[in-house]
Design brief:
With about 140 residues, the chain is mostly beta strands. About 10% of the residues lie in helices and about 40% in strands. It binds thymidine-5'-diphosphate.
């Protein structure tokens, strides 16, 4: 469910020459990172996401600027505002996401548990919510 999708705080090495944050596989990320991708040059007013993944785990980081991520597990919705590069939002599988409110020059970096696979996507919200409901029924 949506309660698994928490903000992860990464270490910060404060320095007058500029701060440093690091992300270590096995320590800060609850899966093995197999892919990194990033959204950039996003025009004002654009919306990304609009899909869910069957099995993929992700952590989203606002490397620069800010944006909002709305998560929806089929039952509950939550909006997160990301605006610091030392925070990451963990997104569990079976979570519909919309990303909007991109500030100009923002960079959205995503750490993912697997390489790209279109078969892992739900691109249709009704298909997703039906599958999420079935999953929830099976769990209780
Ligand atoms: P998509 O995941 O729908 O973008 P977003 O969720 O960020 O709005 O991907 C957009 C397109 O890019 C789609 O045609 C698939 C392709 N793509 C890859 O080829 N490899 C990748 O790692 C990703 C994330 C997308």
């Amino acid at each position: 469910g949506i309660e698994q999708c928490e903000i992860i705080e990464f270490p910060i090495i404060h320095d007058p020459r500029g701060n440093l944050t690091f992300v270590e596989g096995g320590h800060h990320i609850p899966f093995d990172i197999k892919r990194v991708y990033y959204l950039y040059d996003v025009p004002g007013g654009a919306q990304r996401g609009g899909h869910a993944h069957r099995n993929l785990h992700q952590v989203v980081i606002a490397m620069s600027g800010s944006f909002d991520i709305v998560l929806d597990d089929g039952t509950h919705k939550r909006r997160h505002h990301l605006n610091r590069s030392y925070y990451g939002l963990y997104i569990a599988p079976m979570m519909w996401r919309e990303i909007d409110n991109f500030s100009s020059g923002s960079v959205c970096m995503v750490l993912a548990s697997d390489i790209y696979d279109e078969a892992d996507y739900f691109r249709n919200y009704n298909d997703f919510s039906a599958a999420a409901l079935q999953l929830a029924k099976g769990l209780r």
